[in-house]
Amino acid sequence: MTNIFHLLSSLRKRWGFHYDAALLLALGLFSAFAVARHAAHTSAVSATASADTLPTPVTVRAPPAGAVYGASSVATATTEVWPRGARFERLADIGRGKGVVFTPDFSAPENRRFYERLGFAYFEGADWREVLAQVRAYNRAHPERPIDTLILEAHGTNGHGLKLQAGDAPTAPRSYVSIGGLQQQLAGAGLRLCVIAACNSGRLFRPEIYYTLNTRPGDPLFLPATRGVVNAEPDFRSTEGDVRVLYPAASHLEAANEVYVREFAPLTVASLEGGSGGADGSAGSAGARLVISDAFIAMLLNDPRLALTADGYVTEKSAGASAAAESERLVQRFIALVDETAAREYEATPRDAKGGRR
């Protein structure tokens, strides 16, 4: 199983295949039970509740205790993570004021260097308490340029809990956090938005697990919490938090993409290397790889198809995912944006600083 899993994991990233989907398929190859569970997932979430469901939820950030809401909801307004039409003059402007959290098994060796070169604060780990403590510490240490938006590249675990992990082995470092627990941990940290890029993230907002996760959901993706579960304190309510937690209103599997540094223009490669790489792309880490999700790119590009919301929740699981062609289109647009920014930065650099025009 391990060999097949690693094969699936290596293929998922550039072709719209998320880790959770790869693991579920790998499990399914060896377990009829897992196949049955996966086949039972719905392919989409209906925007309209059927006649025998409860009413569609009203606009809420979190359900108060005892309240009952409908089966699903859709965004009523799109929240922009980056200003629409933003133009970046320097690579470091792209991620200014933003942080990104990566689950270790979803990352790549060059991730930290790449995101930090683009101006992001980068966090990676399998323990939510440690990672969120690092976020709080970062803002305390950088009052002149704090993070106001945190993007979470984590696992949705079929909507049973937001997961960070170092691998798929049962004993691997791994932890989960509820939405309420996330809000409480980030309260007072100086953040404005926290955006979840994870599979079936709308299900994480269900009232029954909003504050306290069910640690026995009977799902093969919910592996042992070797580094614990972070829930909200019993007396905490979301109205006490100062961070809005957003998710894509359409429930689906989030696709990830593995991108080689050499896919960027030679000038960009040199800029990403901090001037140490060659302009022909032959030096430095041009052969290195990084990971970026479709959702992350869509936020950056203000793609109209990505509707982020903090309202309501989703109950049904979805096995639907972006087509490979759509993921590739987003990647190419992202590469073009970074290349254009690197070119502008180079043109604005004094001649002496860049050693003469190439």
Feature tags:
single chain; disordered N terminus; 358 residues; 13% strand; three-stranded mixed beta sheet; alpha/beta
* β-strand amount: 5-15%
Radius of gyration: 21 Å
Number of discrete helical segments = 10
Please provide the count of β strands. 11
Question: Would you write up a description of this structure?
Answer:
The chain has 358 residues and is an alpha/beta fold. The chain has one domain. Helix content is 29%, strand content 13%. The protein is built from ten helices and eleven strands. The protein has helices at 2-12, 19-30, 32-39, 91-94, 111-117, 128-141, 179-186, 266-272, 294-301, 324-348; strands spanning 98-102, 121-124, 149-153, 162-165, 174-177, 193-197, 229-230, 244-248, 256-260, 289-293, 308-309. It has a six-stranded mixed β-sheet with strand order 2-1-3-6-8-11, with helices on both faces. It has a three-stranded mixed β-sheet with strand order 4-5-7. It has a two-stranded antiparallel ribbon with strand order 9-10. A hairpin with an 8-residue loop joins strand 4 (162-165) and strand 5. It is globular, with a radius of gyration of 21 Å.
Please describe the topology of this protein.
Elements: H1 2-12, H2 19-30, H3 32-39, H4 91-94, E1 98-102, H5 111-117, E2 121-124, H6 128-141, E3 149-153, E4 162-165, E5 174-177, H7 179-186, E6 193-197, E7 229-230, E8 244-248, E9 256-260, H8 266-272, E10 289-293, H9 294-301, E11 308-309, H10 324-348
Parallel strand pairs: 1-2, 1-3, 3-6, 5-7, 6-8
Antiparallel strand pairs: 4-5, 8-11, 9-10
